[in-house]
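If you are new to this repository, start here. Below is one unmodified record pulled from the training split, so you can see the exact layout before writing a loader.
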Amino acid sequence: MAFNAEYLPVELNGETYAVDTMAYRRTTVPVSRQQRDNSKEPGENTLDTTGAWVRSQTDWSHGAGQLYLDNEDSDRRRFYSSQGVDIWTKGQMTLLADTEDASPSTALGTGDLILERFVKADGTEYIYLASDSTMFFSSDGGDNWTEHSTTEPIGSMTSDGSSIYIARTGTQVPQKYVLGLTADLTFGTLTPNLLQIVAGRIIGAEGNDIYELDAAGAKASSSLDYSLPLSTSSWVSITPASNGIYAAANTDNTGSLYYIGVNSADGTLNAPTVAASLPRNETINEIMAYGGLIGLATSAGFRLALISPESSGVTLGPAIDTGGEAFSLEADGKFMWFGCDNAQTHRVDLSRFTETLVPAYASDLKMSGTVAATDKVVSLVRLNNDNDPKLFLAVNKGSGAGVIYKEHYSGNKVATGELIAGEITWSTVVPKLLRSGVIDLDRSQYERAKTAYRTTTGYTASTPYTLGAATTTPVGKIRLVATNGALTSSTIPDSTGTLSTGEPDTFSFSDGINTAISYDLKIELERASSPATASPICHDWQLTAVAVPRRIDEIILPIVFRRDVTTSRGSGKPRAALVVKEAFENLRALMEGGTAVSYKEGKRTDNVTIERLEMTPERLSDDGGWWEGTLMVRLLTVPA
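And here is the target side for that same chain:
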């Protein structure tokens, strides 16, 4: 039989007690609970929470703008921001194309540049550029430019497929040219500074006036001829839509959209009616109708508007203000682009929406070389380029002459890119120890020596089909960068190395702060040194972390509940005249009140709460007031 050599004195809420050391227990409470995954398919919730917690991402095609990766309402297909990274193929990220200078040999001016794409009846694709009072055009993708000077700065350009019409600022009549030629003809006697051919009609605008022109350049008889009430108003952009024409005007530093319908009786154009108004002090730079939607480049950013076929009114969506003010628009396929400052473009996917009228979006092509914050992408054009589309950027430099850049025609990739996945909390504010990270490459980059299903000699059952020998070496380099709560970063494998597919590496923070409530994750990509067209393709990333919450100890304290108590060796403080009933009531009051009290055992002191009392009686006290025996007290420590 075990012999209890000594009663150990402890102190609870300032009162000294003796305990039965044979029954005393102190245990750290487990931090993980048993869980069950009720989802249709096994996923991260299936993993045992007593081990490392996993966070991963396998798709980025829902775009940027999400700060928290793993909140309850987060979309795991979104991220916070990116630069130089192409996320538009579902299930992979890689580097975007680089850009190259496509400027004419003649230095451009400092005024707003204008880019337009016109296609001649014979299929020849032209790109036209206006810079101050000079017109340039090219039929070979900007490799060679033809130059022609006008007498006043150009305000806009438009074409009907055979001729090009140029409106000039000031009080100058428009000029007309045959596409691809420089012999100019005066077009009418009016002086619009904005011309746009829409649905086979020529619309002109000058200040607060808007009107339809006939083939001779005069106002069309009995058709659109309207002036906004305030002379300080200004028409800034016109676009054709399936249900009519939309025009944008700024009045008192606020933009509005107007609808111009067709009179069903005689085919003339009706007077504009307000279709939507922007919030106060938000102006419009350009509009573009596309597939039942209207894109707006405004002083607040980029907006989408939904056209109502019944009323021809529009519903405005929230502004995407990631890039700041938007100056220009272009659309092709399922995408629309808008240009901002920092010589940066952004792309939106009109087939994927993350909120009502908020499409998936991310940063896109950027002018290569030295860029200033004040460099603005004021005009965009996307050439078909024999079914290999290329985007052109007209950039007004903050200082000096403007430039034209185009998507690299040889397919060169940007040297580096990064994607910030966002803040990762593992869905709890408990501190975590970040352990490791791992990436997987797209299969197309590490499968080699595939056996073709069909061969020149024919496929037979004896011909084995193989996915190819896998290599863990990416084309270029991929790194993971985690940032802790002290804003210290750890890069795996290092700032110049590369991760191998499927091989985890361990994070180590130089400041020694290896736990944090959340971590920011950045994925860095670097193209191959040669060829410049080669880029790594990341299929997914994973992080593992271990929860390290402030630990709680459970203490089972068997108090010797008797009138007179000393230790077996006479040590400790004798406890005489203990009123057991009063002592029990005091402890019970602390338990019911949830009061945190001081608890001392030996040289250790903790704050604790009393969670449970259990009395094992041996006899009734001498005064008959309460039992004497052993009182089992369950304590829980309060984290410091």
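Two things worth knowing about this chain: Confidence is low (pLDDT under 50) at residues 1-5, 39-44, 446-450. Helices lie at 443-446, 580-593.
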